[in-house]
Specification:
globular; 8 helices; alpha+beta
Length: 156
């Protein structure tokens, strides 16, 4: 199977709460590979593109305003079924209902202040990655632990 890439944003509340290291650690411990990361202020245009599916919803402008309050940490993670795996690790949108053991389940209480964004689909991942990263900011490399993350037949 070919590895997928997926986008993750640690939102302003995750940054303020000092959860960057914890979040990265959870993805690394699962066996995902970090292939891109940066801290940035997302522009109004970037946020409009990022949250295009919410454009007609009442919370759209509040969401963009919140995301513009301070920098976010953007990451690209790689692995087999990475989109699905990351979504499971992140947990459901409403923090107080999210599964224990997930990032939102362990650290979140709010729907808007839910710490983190993860791509919902492969198409979303491709679109979101392109909004934040240039191709020269993403890396392909062999990790020494790849051989103990997947069985040989899974990566062929």
């Amino acid at each position: 199977m070919k590895p997928q890439r997926t986008a993750v944003l640690v939102k302003p509340d995750g940054l303020q709460r000092g959860l960057i290291g914890e979040i990265i650690s959870r993805f690394e411990r699962k066996g995902l590979k970090l292939v891109g990361m940066k801290m940035l202020n997302m522009s109004d245009e970037m946020l409009s593109d990022w949250y295009a599916e919410h454009k007609e919803k009442s919370f759209f402008n509040d969401l963009k305003a919140f995301m513009e309050t301070m920098p976010i940490v953007a990451m690209v993670w790689e692995g087999i079924d990475a989109v699905k795996v990351v979504r499971k690790l992140v947990g459901t949108t409403l923090g107080r209902e999210a599964e224990g053991g997930s990032i939102r389940g362990d650290f979140g209480m709010s729907q808007q202040y839910n710490l983190i964004h993860a791509s919902a689909t492969e198409d979303d991942a491709e679109r979101e990655i392109a909004i934040v990263f240039n191709s020269n900011e993403l890396f392909s490399y062999h990790s020494v632990i790849d051989s103990v993350i997947y069985a040989d037949y899974e990566v062929k």
